[in-house]
Amino acid sequence: MYKRLLLPLLFRFDAEKVHYFATSTLQVAHKIPGVAALLRWLFTYRHPSLERTVFGLTFPNPVGLAAGFDKNGEWVEELSNLGFGFIEIGTVTPRPQPGNDKPRLFRLKADSGLINRMGFNNKGAGPAAGRLQFHRQRTQNPRVLIGGNIGKNKDTPNEEALTDYLLCFRDLFDAVDYFVVNVSSPNTPGLRALQEKEPLKAILGRLQGENSLKNKPKPILLKIAPDLADSQLDDIIEIVRETGIAGVIATNTTISRDGLRTPADAVTKMGAGGVSGKPVQVRSTEVIRYLHTQSNGAFPIIGVGGIQTAADAKEKLDAGATLVQVYTGFIYEGPALASKICRGLVQ
């Protein structure tokens, strides 16, 4: 019903406006007694074989919602009732920022993909932490784990980026179960330069140093771009080993426009931004397989990119991922996606 009736209707309107309409509707629905329980019954699938213990955390199932959908931790309670094993909020920055000019989110319907140049639009790490802690106090689904995806403000020079990551880490520490360092978004000028070996080692090493002083350290992961060459992926493996971070998320969006079915003039009109969804599926799986093989499975990998079915998720898991995340597939397939993937993995 979602794909036949609702999706064509929603796709008649601006993508970003539809996003906020859908999440607001979900919030309002949860105010009706019994709706939360009904959604959990409809969309949550439990099975012992789905449970995963990864970097010291126990996930009820391996299917998570990727960062970008709930940037501010505003809908965690509602989204937790749609069958996800974990939800990653963000990317958050130390100070609020509006992001890039609108329009900044576009559909590639022929490709089951999106182009976005959101630019880390968010309300700041401190407010996000407050909302997440409020959620913890009232949640009816405590098994869903929360990740905090952190970045730097647009106007922070790369030379001072470490300070921004530390501020986010400190603000969110008591509110999330794990952290993700985002240096791979193509939508903040100069950010991807932080993926280079030396600046990345400095950021991750310092975060790990502060993390080690905590009574109960939190897992720290690195989210990387699909556009890295093999030599850069080799550097990532070395950096993970040297800094001792918990793992890698592969991958973020791509700046490539190769192989798109959407007409080239339409894509050009949409402008700059990262491509997500089916167009990045093959490359993200290649990156996962390369990291897993070259490192001899030395660290966990969360696979993301083009997952719309259980078969897509299994492809990532077979390539070496331990967990998977969805975002664009969630938009195209609807609220039952996590449950469908979980059922398919069990079968």
TrEMBL record:
**NCBIfam families in alphabetical order:** PRK05286.1-2 (NF003645), PRK05286.2-5 (NF003652), pyrD_sub2 (TIGR01036)
Q: What is this protein called?
A: Dihydroorotate dehydrogenase (quinone)
- EC numbers listed for it are 1.3.5.2
Reactions mediated catalytically: (S)-dihydroorotate + a quinone = orotate + a quinol
Cofactors, names only: FMN
Regarding the membrane, this protein is recorded as: Peripheral membrane protein
Indicate the family of this protein.
Answer: Belongs to the dihydroorotate dehydrogenase family. Type 2 subfamily.
Dihydroorotate dehydrogenase catalytic domain location is 50-345
How is this protein organized at the quaternary level? Monomer.
Cite the Pfam families for this sequence. Answer: DHO_dh
